[in-house]
Each structure stands twice: as structure tokens, then as C-alpha cells.
Design brief:
The complex is a heterodimer of chains A (281) and B (311).
Chain A lengths: L7 H29 L3 H4 L14 H5 L7 H32 L5 H11 L4 H15 L5 H25 L4 H8 L4 H12 L1 H17 L2 H6 L8 H8 L8 H21 L1 H9 L6
Helix pairs in contact in A: 1-13, 4-7, 4-10, 4-12, 5-7, 7-10, 8-9
Chain B lengths: L1 H5 L1 H48 L2 E2 L9 E2 L3 H8 L1 H31 L5 H9 L2 H4 L2 H11 L6 H8 L13 H29 L3 H9 L4 H29 L3 H6 L11 H10 L4 H27 L3
Antiparallel strand pairs in B: 1-2
The chains are: A mainly alpha (281), B mainly alpha (311).
Chain lengths: 281, 311
Amino acid sequence: MVHRKISVAASLLIAAILTIFIIWTFFPIYWMFSTSIKFALEVFNISPELFPKNPTLEHYYALDKGSIKVSVFLKNSIITGLGTVILAMFLALFAGYALSRFRFRMKKFISLGILTTQMFPLVVLLIPLYLLYKRLNLLNSYIGLILSFTSFTLPFSIWMLKGFIDSIPIELEESAIIDGCSKLQILFHIVTPLIVPGLVATMVFAFLDAWNNLLFPLMLVTRPSMKTLPPGMVLAFAGEFKHNWGGMMATSVIVSLPVVVVFVTMQKYLVQGLTAGAVKG
Amino acid sequence: MKKIMDSPDSKSEFKLGRKLKTGARAVVTLTSFLGPALSVMGIVILYPIVEGARLSLFSYKLTRPSDVGFSWFDNYNYMISDAVFWEAMQNTFVFTGCVVGISCLVGLIMALLLQRPLIIFKFLRGIVLIPWVIPGIVIGYLFLYMFDFEIGIINNMLVQSGLIRKALPWLADRELAMVAIIIAHVWNQTPFFLLMFTAGLMSIPEEALEAAYLEGSSSWQEFRYVVFAYLKKIMVIATLLMVIRNFNNFPVIYAMTGGGPSFSTTTAVIYIYRVAFERFDIGYASAIGTIWVLILLTLSIIYTRFLKDEF
């Protein structure tokens, strides 16, 4: 790339802008973390300290105590997240393979239709879904939550796996057909081993999708012991606990941590996925 | 197979049989591969949308369960005269316009500034994306805390630096509350645009920039006629995607203001939620929801049109 010479004044200006941008980006995250390790008294100081004086883990220990246990929400989030990963991966693997390799009528319509469904507002689905779940006895159940999470992560998973399968040379499968392999054998013995990175990325996305979802578990789960972390936060920090900032920030750290860790370690795939669709990945 | 090949008659029979068999089998295979995914999406997404459209024609309030009845387009008529509905529409457009506009501009500037091939910049480009992956509910509570009237760090910093004399009631004031939720979303979404533009900048062939440089174009001309030409498409796609996303945005506003004070930060989806779960007016909420689905459907059709050349 060509790089023009820039004056000292211009580079100072750029450095200043970058510094402001970095502070703007990271300060809120730092503030969340530092509040979570401050003593309650320190949190309520009218002129807050930038650095915690005596770091403490009391807010983290408290998450496992009291009438509303955040640890229960954590358990529910992990269970429904893993369930979503398994279900979404299987469904998306089959559907992605079909959309990539089979030729059939309406293929384009179905492909674009799948893409469109992820643009619909969750709120609109809630009322009919609530009534349906009530009839089917799926309210307050892991299965119900996993089904709803899966449906919203599927469009993206299918498109992503379709993209990965598209990139495998079809000759490999053709020779397998000649050898007499069935479609199922081809999918599991030839295609799947070649798209392991894509599968892992898809699974991570599915997990994070379920992990972040607020609306479905907010409305489809009424029993506190079945709530996942996001609606659990709403429950735990309402009313008299509204100003339990320390506890709120400690929970925020726990909710964000897996997402950030995954993001930092799997950045390459994640960025590929985020830009998939808008920029050819 | 060799045996069949021996007799010409059975050979043609075999061919026909095989064709029929593969036809039927292909349908079975296709259904069993695509069916499960489509049925899950059908139950959780498609059915509720169709059912919502049906419910929108009913007078259906959870507070008066005995009073449910078909009411034609009453809910839609009410919508037209409902001032709060129009306020929510206006809020949605102001909110989305500001968030997408500011995030896009800042993202573009930062992508341009960070494009030099320094290792530290490469590292920074990676980690400045973190706000984008923080869950919505956390962003909501984090900014609720930072914008707090009494102990919020934002009031504290503004007062200490002398920019304002007295603490501002950020989330209790109609205009300031909108500003606060816009700030929270800009923080969250700028990294997305930064990511998109960085990917776009990397796709510009060096020859194009070199040619512009050798022809003696100014930095601005180079940006306007070379860089911008390459970024235009990504900008359109990213902007459309974020408009759709913000039209659907729920958790951050829900946690920060719940749509208040009064209805000043109530966007379309927050209004649907409030009508359904605060007023328990299922019919009316379904009517707004149906209109909103139609608007989003139009947007996503435009969006997939733009994407089409990509696939």
C-alpha cells in the first residue's frame, strides 16, 4: 500500500484521536470489571475512585447466595447453550449440505427465505409462541428454550456451513459415489472431516446466540429456577436490588467473559463469520 | 449387473426402474436433509408470524378473556389514530438514524486511521471489536450504571472537568434519555463498521492506490475516487444490516430505560412489548407487530438483493 508522508502535527493529531477512541472503547469494560471488585461502600462513593483501593471478590461470592442465585441462571444458560449447539449443528449440517450440493426447484427461494427469517423481530413472535408453548407444555422447559434458540441461530449456521461445504471440491464426493457410498456416509466420512474449523465456528456462534438471548427466556420461562442469565439479571436486579451495582457488574463480567474469551481466541473464524454475507469470507 | 446387461429387454426395464427409484429417493433424501431444519424454523418463526397476523384481526385483551372476538381492522384503525404509535415510529427512526449514522462515520474514520501496517494497529484492530460482542443485556446495565444520576461515572467526569455545573438526570429526562441510549449503541456498533471497512480496505488492489498516487492526486481525491469507490458497496450492505438490527433492538433499551421516561425512548419493538405485556392488549400488539414484520420483510428483501451478486 502507498503511504503518504504525513507531518508531525498530523501524526500527533492521529495519535490523539486514536487515544480517545481507545479510552472510549475500553473504559466501560474496565469500569464494569473494576466496579465488580470494589467493596459496596466504595461503589456508592459519590466521587468514584478510578482504581479499586481494596480489591474484593465479595460480589462474586454473593452470586451463589441469597434467595435469587445467579449460579442457577448460569447452570441453565450452560445447559440450554450446549443443547442449542448440538441440535443446531446437526440440523444445519444436513440443511447446509442439501443447499450446497442438491439441485432442486425453489432452491434459491428457500435459501433466501432462510436468510430473511433472521431479520424478523423476536418480540413479534412472542405472543403466538407463548400460546403455542402453553398448549404443548413447553413453557419452563429446557427443550422449549433450546428449540427457540435453535430456530434463530439456524439461518446463520446453515449459511455458514453451506459456504464451507461449497469450498470443498466436489470431485472427492463423486469418487465416493462411484465407490457406492450413501449420501449419509459421504456427509459424515468425507465432508464433515474437511469442515471441522467451520463446524467449530458454527457451534461457537450457536452457543453465543443462545447465551445472549434475552427475550425468549424472559417470556417463555416464568419459573425463576429455569431462567437463563440475561432474564435472570432482569430478575436479580429489579426492585430493592436495583442499585446493587457491585453484584450487577460482577454478573455482567460473568455473562461477558465467555463471549470475550471465545472472541479473542477464535477471532479469525468469528471475524470471518461476522463479515460472511457482507464481505466474501 | 452383468446379468442384466446380457438381455436388452431387461436392460431398458432396469433403466426405467432406476430412474423412478432415484427420483423418489431424491425426494426422500432432500426432505430428510432439509426438513428438520425447516420444520423447527417453521414452528418457532413462521407459525407465530402467520398466527400474529390472524390475531391482529381480533379484539383480544388478556384482562378481558371472555371478550375475545373478530373485529376486522379495528386494531389497524386504532393504530392510525394512536399518537403513541407515531411517537414510537419517530423514536425508531431518530434512534436508528443517529446510531447507524454516527457508528458508520466513526467506524470509517477509525478504519482509515488504523490501516497502516503496524503490528500495534493490527493488534488494536482485533481488540477494539470487543464492545461488539458484549451481550446486549450487559451493555444495557453497564450504561444504566454509568449514566446513573448520583454515582454514575459520566456525570462525575463531566462535573469534575467543568463541562457541566450540575449532574444531569440522564435517564429521567426525555431528550437526554434518547441521547444516552444512542451513546450506548454507538459504543456497541462502531466496532462492527470498523471491521467491515477494514475488510473493505484490504480488498482494494494496491495498483489502484499507486496509480492515484503517481498521478499526483491529493489524499482527499484518492479517498473520494479510489477508496470510497471500493467501500461503497460494503457501506450500503453494512448500513442496511445495522438498520434492520436496530429496528429490532430490544435488550439495551429495555435494561436502560424500559422505553421511558413516559414513551420518549419507546421504539417500535419496545412499544409492541409494552402493549402486549403491560397493557395485555394482544390484538393491538399483534397488529403493530404485523406492520413491523412487513417493514422488515421489505428491508431484508432489499438487503438480499444487494447480497445476491456476492454469492
